[in-house]
Amino acid sequence: MEKLHGVPESMLIPVAARALETYEKKPIVKDPYSEKMFRKLNYDFDQITKDWTTQLGISIRTYILDMLVNDFVKNNEKAFIINIGCGLDTRFDRLSMKGIPWVDIDVPGVINIRKRFFTESENHVMIAKSMFDYKWIDEVKSATFYADGLDILVIFEGVLMYFDDKEIQALIKTIDSQFSNCKLTFAIECCSETIAKHTSKHKSVSHLKSKPVFKSGYNQFKEAQKWFPKGIRLEKEYNYFDYFHRRWGIFGLCRYIPFLKNRLNNKILVAVTKR
């Protein structure tokens, strides 16, 4: 496997987490695709697979995003998915989305690895570009299955917390303006501002060889509006503590204490264009 540095290396954490969750007696998610990659990728996973909370959190985020994707496809006849910073996400194949237009976007090194395990198809393409190289937008619009008037779900899973507020604001503003003829829904994994200030204490990310750093997060739901232009409204937040309470053990009690719930776990933020 080619060497990964910085944020791209972090994609190996969810692969390991989903693979190990698949082995659980009552798994939150079963992911044979991740299990296969976990076995075949030439990487020392030992240091990033020792924390049960990371495995649980990633399994829950997978569960939540699976639910959101399935609901979006069910409720929108013109559903179109853009998965930005896709890493080695398995959702397109795992949820059998072969009839849904789907674009996976990540840097060239990541896409090269993806293509060892996944193949493009008539409705599924992979774009090898940084999300800040906005030429990817032209490639999306040139796809045969793209058209104005689509209902687009934009997924950011495990990626935006590695960038600062100004970078996130510019990225979302650009996507909003460039797809102004479509209705956009954003599903974004976010960490808390508290967690963002303590990457060194994260029991998996801190053990990555390239030591990427969290740069953004929010504690209170309304604070997330800082990333979005006026034409996009915050719709809902899914906090991981609200799911699979027994698996959290004593940490599950945090769901009853807003101060801790808002600061000690990640969440999926959903925002929607008003047009």
From TrEMBL:
<dbReference type="Pfam" id="PF04072">
    <property type="entry name" value="LCM"/>
</dbReference>
<dbReference type="InterPro" id="IPR007213">
    <property type="entry name" value="Ppm1/Ppm2/Tcmp"/>
</dbReference>
<protein>
    <submittedName>
        <fullName>Class I SAM-dependent methyltransferase</fullName>
    </submittedName>
</protein>
<keyword id="KW-0489">Methyltransferase</keyword>
<keyword id="KW-0808">Transferase</keyword>
<dbReference type="GO" id="GO:0008168">
    <property type="term" value="F:methyltransferase activity"/>
</dbReference>
<dbReference type="InterPro" id="IPR029063">
    <property type="entry name" value="SAM-dependent_MTases_sf"/>
</dbReference>
<dbReference type="InterPro" id="IPR016874">
    <property type="entry name" value="TcmP-like"/>
</dbReference>
<dbReference type="GO" id="GO:0032259">
    <property type="term" value="P:methylation"/>
</dbReference>
